[in-house]
Amino acid sequence: MDRLTKALLTAVAVMVVLSPLGILLVWNYGDAWGEWDVSTIEHMVGQKLPGMEKLSNAWNHAVLPDYNVPGWEDKLHASAGYILSAIVGVALVLGFYYVVVKLTSGGAKG
What we know:
Layout: H1 3-18, H2 21-24, H3 38-45, H4 50-55, H5 75-104
């Protein structure tokens, strides 16, 4: 493995381990910035947002909803859920990248 790949993998590993900081920093203060639901946004802007309301349920097929495992509600388990979610996300992105590379470079040998 070359030096650049090792550095990138190390950076990704550090980000995976640090991923729970986002939830732990706002644990007692509500949602993390930008993770608001439709009613919270409507309250913030002062009016109904029919387009956002319509699209809010467009995707309900998350592998780990809310970056967590159902039932893991305390801080320790929520942190582990965030790390697990980050690992799954990285694995899905790497898998997608691998498939794209294989499909696009299938005939090219060099």
